[in-house]
Amino acid sequence: MAVAIKVHDLGVELAGRPVLKRLTFEIPEGKIVGLLGPSGAGKTTLIRTVVGRQKITEGGVEIFDLPAGDKKLRADIGYMTQSPAVYPDLSVRENVRYFAAMRNLPKREADAAIRRVELGGQAKQLFATLSGGQKSRVSLAIALLGQPKLLVLDEPTVGVDPVLRRQLWQLFAGLAEQGTTLIISSHVMDEAEHCEELLLIRDGRVLAGGSPAELRARTGSKTVEDSFLKLVESKR
Amino acid sequence: MSFRRALATAARVLRQLRHDPRTLALIFLVPPVLLTILKYVFQDRRQFDAIAPMILGIFPLVMMFIVTSIATLRERTIGTLDRLMTMPLSKLDLIFGYAIAFSLVALVQACVASAVVLGLLGVTVLGGTLPVLIGAVASAFLGTALGLFLSAFAKSEFQAVQFMPAFIFPQLLTCGLFVPREQMARVLQWFADIMPLTYSVDAMKQITLHATWTGTLTRDLVVVTAYGLAVLILGSITIRRQDG
Asked: Which residue in B11, B78, B87 is closest to A103 by CB distance?
């Protein structure tokens, strides 16, 4: 299977402090990969490195065989930041249409993305007046613009009600089936079951990787959360 | 750079302002109100006639400086800049989008202020209204450029607002508004000669005193616009694709 992301010996320092320490892993194309770890583990820094916003201190990150941050990758990556990163003083539609224009896409693509995250009824509402879950869906709609080959979503399901969360995971699964690679970070271990591959990180290092079933089997645990705990203990 | 994306950015910035009618009202109403007050501050009508057109050149710069520095600082703090920088747009699309939007706002502001000053308050400028509007827009462009550039060095909105007195007031004091530049100490004259606001104010002075378009007026406007462009390019360097 083709490799979407290749990370080798990646080290990243923020203000002189090492945040990512010699990370090495590969992510296959067309899979949903869960990036799991407690807050402060380095998930956001890793994500920012993958989308090309964070400078690499050592090692390398290649996406579709190009170095992270390469100009040619910009049209292929959809990025949903952890905080919504949407203009609060614009309506849902004005926001999504603006970002669509920045990706050289027509308005109808923007409107389709809004319907995809079930916000058709709120299209004219000012972003600032939306609920937390609705806000993150606007942010998701922007990331979905242009059907990027790689979707990088930083905690997309935070604050979303359970019914909608299930719908979002169905949406993600559908995208993966069509060949999109998805990296989804979360600090909630329950979400792991929706992912085909997992990458557990802690303190800037890869703790383990593999499918949820593999991880449970390897550690002899019932849940991914237990596997995580056992792996942490075994490293001590 | 793409003209379409720059226009889309300008439209977005203007839409944001439209959702904030109080800010728009302040932008359009503060200059005419202050100028009206100023008219009654001066006992001597000729003094007001000389100073009012110069102030028409200063308002756009000061106000667009503040609005732009806050707007771009917000863009950095709410993360929209972070997101935009992963997309296939040029930094110049963003920067010129801002410049276009705020120049248009400044044009409306200048129309309102000029209507009041030249109409209601009866000030005559020999050069006519059109050059006044051109001068005001050039000065607004410069204000936008300076705001965009300097906001990169502000970590908070408190700091950004303080940049106005820190960077604009020294130019205001030495630009010839309070004391003719020839009467200032040599060092201050040198300072005024290299500062752009001096040329915005001088352009308005030229328009007030001359019925024809003078060579000095062309020079003034070229200096202001070139300064604006240079600072915008510097501003695009402060927006980085990658952190760290």
From this structure: B87
